[in-house]
Amino acid sequence: MSETEEKEKSSEIEPVKDKPLKLIAYPQVCAVENEDSTGFDIEVYLPGVDKDTIKLKMDSEYIIITGETDTVKYTGFYNLCCPVEPEKAKTTYKEGLLKITVPYKEIKMQTIDIKID
Q: Which one of 17, 82, 84, 115 is most buried, counting C-beta atoms within 10 A?
């Protein structure tokens, strides 16, 4: 074998065989205002994800969702357009669909009258 061929073979990268790589994907999310305009109905599509692997974090302006299958890791960070009350959120998960219902946060505005010249 020539010296050039040996260098080419030694510089080849060996694939890692210990753990298969997972595809990282954003979950499909649909957020709409509920029928009585008091909050959001949010649906997150997580096909094949086991309920035990789902992590949902929420504050008044954002939601963070992760979940895994054997081959895919879903992860997403989403901004909500209106503040919500995360402590009042209700969730269900069935057949790959996570449903979140969360009310809007009541905004308390402290306004003052401004003189217009």
A: 84
Q: Which of 106, 52, 116 is nearest to 83 (CA)?
A: 106
Phi (first) and psi of residue 25, to 5 degrees: -135, 150
* In-domain check, residue 26: yes
| CA distance linking residue 89 with residue 54, whole number of Å | 16
Distance, CA of 102 to CA of 61 (rounded, Å)? 11
Q: Are the beta carbons of 44 and 91 closer than 8 angstroms?
A: no
* pTM for the structure as a whole: 0.74
| CB of 40 closer than 8 Å to CB of 32 | yes
- The string of pLDDT tens digits covering residues 57-77 is 999 999 999 999 999 999 999
Residue 44 placed within a domain: yes
Tell me how many domains the chain contains.
1
Range of the domain at 36: 20-103
The residue with tokens 């054997």 is: 70
